[in-house]
Amino acid sequence: MVPQYEKAPTQHHALQVEPRLLSLVVDALPVLIRHSDANGRCTYANRRWLSLTGRRLDEELGDGWADALHPEDRAGCLELLKGACEAQQPVSIEYRLRRHDGAWRWLHEQAAPHGDDDGVLDGLLHAAFDVTDHQVGAERLRQLLDRQQVSFEELRHRAVNRSQLILSLLRLQASEAEDPGVRSALEAAASRVRAVVLADQRLGSVPDGAALKLGDCLQELAEALRPSFEQRAIGLEVSVDDSELPSRVAPPLGLLVNELL
Predict the structure, then answer these.
(1) Each residue of 55-72: b (16+ CB within 10 Å) or e?
(2) From CA 156, how far away is CA 251, in angstroms rounded?
């Protein structure tokens, strides 16, 4: 038998009886809280909000709170909040708000609609957190990653240039070698260097971390090796499916196929 429980009585009357306690709790929360009516006009802001803006409550009421919005964020922020009211759906937004000392602070806000028992919208309840430190840290990380990517591309470019130089020297030495064994060894070394160069060039042509087409990689490698096969009257055909491979696999795979061929 499933036990039956009586529905707990509503406690809404307690909030009406002790509004001062409710105000103390809302002011004590480490959250910036506002309330706006069904038209998006501010009707309340807690002490945390007023401490951040350095303004009085009467200055924040109505459309006054929006005076502290960053000019670049104002239109988009108000549009999203208006849409949340019309659709009666929660919304998550980020915007910059001017602090009492003039500094801009990034806020992450969650706004949720609420209404009466008949479903009539009373307004939005807003809860915001200051995420400026997170934004600053994220921006520094993006800048660091950008610099790292530039350095990586520069190193890759230098490596390809040096490999091309080594490849040219090996080919030159092979063409001048009289001993067939030496010539064959130099040509084999040049072939390995060529495989690495092709892999690096292919990696440099795709976005960082993107997958590579297996067929394209092996076709380029085969084309590079074709002259050495033709010298021996050997035909070479490549048939590869459209599989993709991670970029980190391309260099060792190129060397492996080069050795097999």
Answers:
(1) beeeebeeebbbebbeee
(2) 13
**Strand 104-115, strand 32-37: pairing:** unpaired
Calpha distance 37→115 (Å, rounded): 10
Task: Calculate the alpha carbon distances from 19 to 14, 96, 114 in Å.
Answer: 8, 31, 19
Separation CA 234–CA 226 (nearest Å): 9
Contact 215, 241 (CB under 8 A): yes
Least confident residue range of 128-132, 191-195, 202-206, 254-258: 202-206
Counting beta carbons within 10 angstroms of the beta carbon of residue 103, is it exposed (0 to 12), middle (13 to 18) or buried (19 or more)? exposed
Q: Is 194 exposed, middle or buried (0-12, 13-18, 19+ CB in 10 A)?
A: buried
Long-range CB contacts for residues 56-65, cutoff 8 Å, separation at least 24: 60/34, 65/34
59-71 pLDDT, tens digit each = 999 999 999 999 9
Distances (CA, A) of 78 to 92, 147, 233: 12, 36, 74
φ and ψ of 235, to 5 deg: -85, 155
Phi, psi at 24, each rounded to 5°? -65, -40
